Amino acid sequence: MIQFDVSHAASFLPPDWLSGRTAALEQARVMLEEGNGPGGDYTGWVHLPRDYDKEEFARIQAAAQRIRSNSQALVVIGIGGSYLGARAVVELLNSPNFNLTHKDGPAIYFAGNGLSSDAMLEIIDLIKDKDWSINVISKSGTTTEPAVAFRIFKALLEEKYGKQEARKRIYATTDAHKGALKGLADAEGYEEFVVPDAVGGRYSVLTAVGLLPIACAGVDLNALMEGAQEAMEALSISGTDNPAWQYAAARHALYTTGRKVEILAGYEPSFRFFGEWWKQLFGESEGKEHKGLFPASVEFTADLHSMGQYIQQGERLMLETVVRFAKSHGSVTIPHDPDNVDGLNFLAGKDLSFVAEQAMRGTLLAHVDGGVPNLTVTVPGRDAKSVGALIYFFEYACGLSGYLLGVNPFDQPGVEAYKNNMYALLGKPGYEDRRAELEARLK
Ligand code: PA5
């Protein structure tokens, strides 16, 4: 279903780029399948598309139905892995303008993914005259950004509906047993959904973390999971024709021969947040021990008129992975103009997607000629089943890639550094010494 093409990177790859890695790929495959490699406790996502909790899945769909019927807006509170997957899928399957274009169900506002007062005030203003609900998502239940946002939105919801009714409009997605959010949800009687222990944030989009907001956007969850399951079955098989093996091997070979940056390129504006999700997936999984490709993303053709210059002629440090969708949702025909002042009549009667296809093909060759290896991932369409498969393809390839690189792809020790400094500077009890030290350095 997902096709991978390495032919436009072939001239940059050593002859044994794949054959020289099959043993390591097989070892990585077994570690993922059996959960016995580094970080193996967090490989619960590997068989999730088949083994997911069906009872909870039905509850997610029922809750989404309720939210769709009683809310004009849904505030989804979460950050990082508790945010990006849902936004990526909602936008990719619809539009970055989802809140303007959706026909039924609630507008979806993502909050708690930063600390901007102005961004929060904007959401508060947008929802104030609407009926709305909250889905608060935090595995740890203690992450500052969503916890602060939840406190604020919870107070607003209680002010609007009263405590009793507000409780029925709050859906908490968190750990099954522990954490501040779990304690609060239990005490208040919110409907709860679980972030499974064995699934880390960036691999959690196909759990309740992603599925509840995605269902609220009207997406067919069964199709999404079906696509992921088909990909799971196809990608678990050993062999050099496995597209996840090819992708992991190609990017690893390019990395070890000097490439430092991987650019994910899409041609659909709705793909932007999928790129953000992909950046977290690969950046947090590989970027450790001073290793790993730096993941970047671009939106073509817009960025061909800005970053295109650097990609074509700047420092030769990147590889490019292009994600193309085989078909558009609709079609736009370029009209004939009798005056032809713009000289575009040679395109009259052609579909805009034909122009896009030629832009994509021309860019591919230009970038290869400029010294940028191009990998291509082709997805049948922007439909739920294909996107489910695409998510799983990247997750599985990321797991393989981390093991090829020799790192634990499922931890993220580096994200603690800023948190500890922030806690100290905020005056959190227990951080007094660190606070004094940091304040002195910041003087
Ligand atoms: O991938 C990760 O682990 C992070 O991005 C987390 O998802 C993010 O920090 C949010 O954590 P939590 O869900 O505990 O609030």
Task: Give a description of the structure.
The protein is α/β, with parallel strands linked by helices and 443 residues long. The chain has two domains: 215 residues, 3-Layer(aba) Sandwich (Rossmann fold); 176 residues, Rossmann fold (3-Layer(aba) Sandwich), CATH 3.40.50. The protein is built from 17 helices and ten strands. The mean pLDDT is 97. The site of 5-phosphoarabinonic acid has 14 residues, from loops. Belongs to the GPI family. It catalyses: alpha-D-glucose 6-phosphate = beta-D-fructose 6-phosphate. Pathway: Carbohydrate degradation; glycolysis; D-glyceraldehyde 3-phosphate and glycerone phosphate from D-glucose: step 2/4; Carbohydrate biosynthesis; gluconeogenesis.
